[in-house]
Amino acid sequence: MILCALADLPKKGAKGPFRLTINGQVEAVFVVRQGPSVTAFVDRCPHVGAPLEMEPDHFLDLSKTEILCSLHGARFDPATGLCRLGPCKGRSLVAVPVSIEDGMVVAPE
After folding, report:
1. What is the overall mean pLDDT for the chain?
2. SS3 (DSSP) at 21
3. pTM higher than 0.90, yes or no?
């Protein structure tokens, strides 16, 4: 399933949420780009299960180097989803496999 065009993602940015069916359940998913690297995660903080963003496409901190939970301030590594700081330190976001195909960010259906 096509999530977005790679060109729609700033070199340090995020986009989403998108709706995907994962293991038979509809999940909100977001995509993060850090230079050439693109990752995707389920939009759910491991602390309380709340969405991470306050508004669409706003998943990163001001420096655009960490994923930020807007509810509790937890900070996550955009490459791995590991929580570096906050109430869920040491836990991780659920990763979603994505690839780049013909300039599009694609998730398996």
Report:
1. 95
2. strand
3. yes
